[in-house]
Amino acid sequence: MPRPRKLRIEFRKNRSGRRRGGDLTRRVDADPDALADQAAVERLSGKGDLTRKRTVVVDAVPAGPVDGLAAAPLAAGAWRGRVLHVHGLESLVQSADGRLVRCTLRRVLRTMATDQRHPLAAGDWVRATGDDGEGTIEAIEPRRTSLSRDSRGRRHVIVSNVDQLVIVGSAALPDLKPGLIDRMLVAAELAGIRPLVCINKADLVPAAALVPLAGVFARMGYPVVLCSAVTGLGLGRLTAELVGRVTAVVGQSGVGKSSLLNALDPTLDLAVGEVSRDNQKGRHTTTTARLLPHRFDGWFVDTPGVRQFQPWEIVPAQVPAAFRDLRPLANLCRFPDCTHTHETNCAVKDAVADGLLDTRRWESCCQLAGGDGDEGGDGELEA
User: Fold this and answer.
1) For residues 199 and 43, what is the distance between their CA atoms, to the nearest angstrom?
2) What pLDDT sits at residue 8?
3) Is the distance from CB of 183 to CB of 310 less than 8 angstroms?
4) CATH 3.20.19.10 matches 151-302
5) Residue 106, number of CB atoms within 10 A of its CB
6) pTM, entire model
7) How confident is the model at residue 380 (pLDDT cuts 50, 70, 90)?
8) 14 Cβ contact list (under 8 Å, min separation 6)
9) What is the CATH number of domain 69-149?
10) Per-domain residue ranges of the chain
11) Is 151-302 in the same CATH topology as 69-149?
């Protein structure tokens, strides 16, 4: 049995209150004798009320970049469950026996210093205590996979522990954004999640108009499905990809994600909205990521619409490796640190000039590597 280990955990700077009250002068003016009760000096050390760290003892720490608190053993009376959705400080957790419990996050997890916007995400496996419909999340287990984006310099984990990612775009109303699909494909590649491209509302445009774009993604090995929630086009093909898997459904608002899920499983009965006639943008009806069991022995993760998307902490040198069509060509460039923009003897630019590489994909790669947010910057989810 491994020996317990001690870990030093850092907390946010606003965890502790001020050591000296701000009304000291008023109290002394009201009662001069109270001055004798005040400390003559003030010492700031790591052992006082202003400390930002705490020692936590755990029995074992698994290999890899895992938070020590998540490795805590299952205590007596605790149970394991999956987070269905997160709403502020409360989360809906489903236990192994199917019970739905509203849980709050213990304070030590809420106040830890971390780069995440919220320590919890839909799809997380947690260890909780409590019953009768209310409980407390004591620990968060390590994530197998996670889809993250940059949100004002902090990491926003949209979903975790999913098997595949269905990236939904619309053929019309609103217009298709290939650059946004590219960025989500890059995030899926970096996270190790299987991506699938789904173009909804295919009944609104001629099928021939979608063939060039669908062909570009299909040649790279990505499954591409042209479908329609109204006519039922492509739903059979999409159903075959969902059996027994946890599938996150992402895309911009108004592309018909909820309508598509309702068409696949009418028992979900998700709320849907119409696209605005003024700006042809979707009116968001989904406000938080939610895990939903479906009839194909799996789970959907319905996510809010997103207008912009910037993968979390992506390094410019990693971008070409995440583009499947650029990856083999980048190894043939003259310079190992080639940016594929201005260098001579660049195999990527030569392939674009010869028509062997799609020009739009090359431009999308350059925009993402350069931090350009035109097709998906650090904007907010529409929630």
Assistant:
1) 63
2) 80
3) yes
4) no
5) 15
6) 0.82
7) very low
8) none
9) 2.40.50.140
10) 5-58, 69-149, 151-302, 316-369
11) no
